[in-house]
Design a protein that fits this description.
alpha+beta, Four Helix Bundle (Hemerythrin (Met), subunit A), Formiminotransferase-cyclodeaminase, Chain B, domain 1, 4-stranded antiparallel β-sheet, Alpha-Beta Plaits
Length: 564
C-alpha cells in the first residue's frame, strides 16, 4: 500500500537573520510529524526556502505553524530584498509525492489558505492548481505589485481570495500569503560532451517550452522579430512545462543543459532526457549523463525504468529496486558521482530507519521471531507471507516466460502478468506487518484504564473498533491471495513449461494463505458484539475460501497433466 506523502516548500521573507530562520523551522518541526529536508537562506534575496515532507495532515499542520511563527517574527514594512515578495510567508505550495493526487493537494491548499486568513488574520491568495480564479493560476498575477501594492489591492477586485480588508496595521506587518498546489518540480542537469555554453544554450532553447526568439534571415544573429506590442515573437520548444538554459560547469569541465521540469505529468524525466539527447545529436553533441539536483519522487524513476525496459522489450514485472537501477543506468544518473537512491528518492529518505518491519528481516530472522515466546507475529502474518510467496512464484514464471528463447513476440503478454504479480505481492507483504499491527492495537486497548464507568465504556468501544480491524485485515489477506490464483493458472497453462511446477507451488501457497487467514477472520469475528456484521464477514471469508480451493485444484490438475 502506497504511503500518502506530500511536500511543502514555503518561502519566508527572511534570509539574513539565522535566529529568526531557526525559530520558524523549529516551529514547523515541533508542530507535527514531518521531516525537514532542506533550509536554503539567501542573503541578497533576503528569503529562505524551506522544504519538508510527511503525511498530508501533518504537513498542513506544520505549514500553519510556520506561517504563524513567521508572522510573529517578520515585519514586512521593514523588508528589503532582491526577490519579488508580498508577505512574511510569501508562497506556500503543497506538492504531491506519493499516494496523493494534485487535486487533493489543491483542496488541502484552499482549506489551509482559508484557515490562515481566519485564525491568523493574514490575507491569502490561492494559486496554481489551487486557484479559485483562472488567472491566478499564475503566481505573478497574485503577487502583482508585490508588498508595496497591497494597500491599493486589498479592497479592489484584485484583492485576496480570503481576508480582504483595509490595509491596516496587521496587514502592514504580515503582508499577504499565496497558498497553492503544484506538481513536483524536478531540477535536472543534462551533461554534454562539450565545453561550449553556446551549444548548450542552443539545445536548451530547442527543447524548453518558451523556445527562442524568431529572427529575420540569419537564425543566430538576425534581427529579432517583434509583435505589435513590441514583444519578441517566440518559436516554442518541443517540451511543455519545462524551463532550460545552457551553462558551463568549471567543477566538471563540461557544459550542461540545466532544466526545471515544472509538471512531470506533462513532461516526465525520461521524456526530457530522450528529447535533449535527440536535439543534442542533431547539433553534433552527445548527452553523457544526467544530474538530479535535490530529491526526486520515486514514481519519476519507476516510470523511466519501465520506459527503457519497454524499449528493450523486457518485462517490467520486476522489483522496484531493479527498475530504478535500470533508470539510473539508462539516463547516466551516476555519470558525475555515485547515485544512491536511498539519499535521492523522497520516499526512501522518509523511511524510518529505527522502525523494524517483519518484511525487512532475513528469512531466518523472521522464522526465529515467529518462533519466540511473543504472540506476534502469528498465523495472520504467516498467512500473508505465504500469499506473497505464491505471488512471487507466479511472477517468476511470468518473467522467465517473457525472456524464453523463441517467445520474443510474447514478452508484453508475460510482462503484464508479472506486473500483476508484483502488485499482489507488494500488497501481501504490507499485510504481513499490518496483521501484527492489528494484534498490537488490541493489546493497547487492554492497557487502557477501566476504573470509572466512563473509562470502562471507552475501553469497551475501543476494543470493538480494534477487533473489527483485526477481523478485516485477514479478510484483506484472503482477497489479495485469491488474486494470485489467476496468475499462477495462466502461468501453468501458458508459461514456460520448465517452470510449471513453480506455478503449482504458487497455487498451494495461495490456498494456504487463504485458509490460514480465514481462521483469523473467524476467531477475531467471535469478539464482535455486532453479530450481523460478524456473520457477514465470516460468510464473505467462507465464500472466498470455497472459490480458492476450487481454483487451486484446477491449477494442480493442469500442472499434474503437464508433468505427466
Amino acid at each position: 500500500m502506497e504511503k500518502r506523502i506530500i511536500e511543502c516548500v514555503p518561502n519566508f521573507s527572511e534570509g539574513r537573520d539565522k535566529e529568526v530562520i531557526n525559530q520558524i523551522t523549529t516551529a514547523i518541526e515541533a508542530a507535527a510529524d514531518v521531516r525537514l529536508l532542506d533550509v536554503d537562506p539567501g542573503e541578497a534575496t533576503n528569503r529562505t526556502v524551506v522544504t519538508f515532507v510527511g503525511e498530508p495532515e501533518a504537513v498542513v499542520e506544520a505549514a500553519f505553524a510556520g506561517v504563524k511563527r513567521a508572522a510573529e517574527l517578520i515585519d514586512m514594512s521593514k523588508h528589503k530584498g532582491a526577490h519579488p515578495r508580498m508577505g512574511a510567508t510569501d508562497v506556500l505550495p503543497l506538492v504531491p509525492v506519493s499516494g496523493v493526487t494534485l487535486e487533493e493537494c489543491a483542496e488541502l491548499a484552499r482549506a489551509l489558505a482559508e484557515r490562515i486568513s481566519r485564525e491568523l488574520n493574514i490575507p491569502t491568495y490561492c494559486y496554481e492548481s489551487a486557484a479559485l480564479r483562472e488567472e491566478r493560476r499564475n503566481l505573478a498575477v497574485c503577487r502583482e505589485g508585490e508588498y508595496e501594492g497591497l494597500a491599493e489591492r486589498m479592497l479592489s477586485d484584485d484583492g485576496p481570495d480570503f481576508g480582504a480588508r483595509a490595509f491596516d496595521e496587521g496587514v502592514a506587518r504580515t503582508g499577504a500569503t499565496a497558498v497553492g498546489a503544484r506538481d513536483f518540480l524536478i531540477a535536472v542537469n543534462f551533461n554534454l560532451n562539450t565545453t561550449s555554453t553556446r551549444r548548450a544554450n542552443a539545445i536548451a532553447f530547442d527543447v524548453r517550452e518558451k523556445g527562442r526568439p524568431v529572427r529575420e534571415g540569419n537564425p543566430i544573429v538576425g534581427k529579432i522579430v517583434k509583435d505589435e506590442a513590441g514583444n519578441p515573437v517566440m518559436r516554442p520548444g518541443t517540451l511543455k512545462s519545462t524551463k532550460a538554459i545552457g551553462w558551463y560547469i568549471e567543477e566538471y569541465g563540461i557544459a550542461q543543459v540545466s532544466m526545471n521540469l515544472t509538471d512531470i505529468g506533462v513532461t516526465p524525466l525520461h521524456v526530457a532526457f530522450d528529447e535533449v539527447c535527440h536535439k543534442a545529436d542533431a547539433r553534433g553533441v552527445r548527452v553523457t549523463g544526467t544530474e538530479i539536483v535535490g530529491l526526486v519522487p520515486k514514481r519519476a524513476l519507476l516510470e523511466a525504468g519501465r520506459y527503457f525496459l519497454h524499449k528493450q522489450h523486457r518485462s517490467t514485472g520486476i522489483s522496484e529496486e531493479e527498475i530504478i537501477r535500470i533508470a539510473v543506468k539508462s539516463m547516466g544518473l551516476d555519470d558525475l558521482k555515485p547515485f544512491n537512491p536511498r539519499e535521492k528518492v523522497v520516499e526512501y529518505v522518509l523511511e524510518e530507519e529505527c522502525q523494524k518491519h517483519l518484511i525487512d528481516m532475513t528469512c531466518k530472522g523472521f522464522a526465529e521471531e515467529t518462533a519466540s515466546e511473543s504472540p506476534a507475529p502469528g498465523g495472520g502474518s504467516i498467512s500473508a507471507y505465504m500469499g506473497a510467496l505464491g505471488a512471487a512464484l507466479g511472477t517468476m514464471v511470468a518473467n522467465l516466460s517473457s525472456h524464453k528463447a523463441g517467445w520474443d513476440d510474447r514478452w508484453e503478454e508475460f510482462s503484464q502478468w508479472a506486473e500483476q504479480g508484483q502488485t499482489v505481492m507488494a500488497e501481501l507483504l504490507h499485510l504481513v506487518d499490518e496483521d501484527t499491527e492489528a494484534f498490537n492495537r488490541i493489546m493497547a486497548v487492554f492497557a487502557m484504564p477501566k476504573t470509572t464507568d466512563e473509562e470502562k465504556a471507552a475501553r469497551s468501544a475501543a476494543l470493538q473498533v480494534a477487533t473489527l480491524y483485526a477481523t478485516e485485515v485477514p479478510l484483506r489477506t484472503m482477497k489479495a491471495a485469491e488474486r494470485v490464483l489467476p496468475i499462477v493458472k495462466a502461468m501453468a497453462e501458458q508459461g514456460n513449461p520448465n517452470s510449471v511446477s513453480d506455478a503449482g507451488v504458487g497455487a498451494l501457497a495461495a490456498r494456504s494463505a487463504v485458509l490460514g487467514a480465514r481462521l483469523n477472520v473467524r476467531i477475531n469475528a467471535a469478539g464482535l458484539k455486532d453479530r450481523a456484521k460478524a456473520d457477514a464477514l465470516i460468510a464473505e471469508a467462507d465464500a472466498i475460501a470455497e472459490r480458492v480451493v476450487a481454483a487451486e485444484q484446477e491449477v494442480l490438475k493442469i500442472v499434474e497433466t503437464k508433468i505427466g
